[in-house]
Design a protein that fits this description.
Layout (H helix, E strand, L loop, with lengths): L2 H26 L2 H9 L1 E2 L12 E5 L3 H11 L4 E5 L2 E5 L3 E7 L4 E7 H12 L23
Antiparallel strand pairs: 1-2, 2-6, 3-4, 4-5, 5-6
């Protein structure tokens, strides 16, 4: 057989392998969203109204155990804990784990929405100073004003 034939077969195999990998990654979900969706029970009735990106889940475990599990699987940029719950900050998402009856409710939401909703709790802990989840850009000449 000709070398072109083998090259075509190899290229086809590589493309198929890449497609299978991409489908697997995107269908199973990655990051904290995928982890929470895979390991906890979906609770649509607990989604925050007005936030289409929010997903609520429940667990029979205590908030600290749930948050530790998520944080071990996906290391947060920042973690803040107080009596109201555990607040995990990631690049684009936030995972908020709060006590609920005999267990926890877990909210996975867009980072900006989480900051707006929980600003009173995480205001200084997540590293932002403005109430809209945006960092101060400075004030000198040429600083991007």
């Amino acid at each position: 057989m000709k070398p072109k034939f083998w090259f075509a077969i190899a290229a086809t195999a590589v493309v198929l392998g890449l497609l299978v990998t991409l489908v697997t990654v995107f269908s199973t979900g990655t990051g904290p969203r995928g982890y929470v969706a895979k390991h906890y029970t979906r609770a649509e009735r607990l989604d925050r109204p007005g936030d289409d990106d929010n997903r609520a889940y429940t667990s029979r475990k205590a908030p600290s155990r749930v948050a530790n599990s998520v944080a071990q699987a996906w290391e947060p940029i920042t973690q803040y804990t107080n009596e109201t719950g555990v607040y995990l900050r990631y690049n684009d998402d936030a995972v908020i784990v709060q006590p609920r009856k005999r267990g926890s409710v877990i909210h996975v939401m867009d980072l900006d929405q989480a900051y707006r909703h929980y600003h009173h709790v995480v205001g200084g802990a997540w590293g932002w100073t403005s109430p809209h989840g945006r960092s101060f850009r400075g004030g000198g000449p040429g600083s991007g004003k």
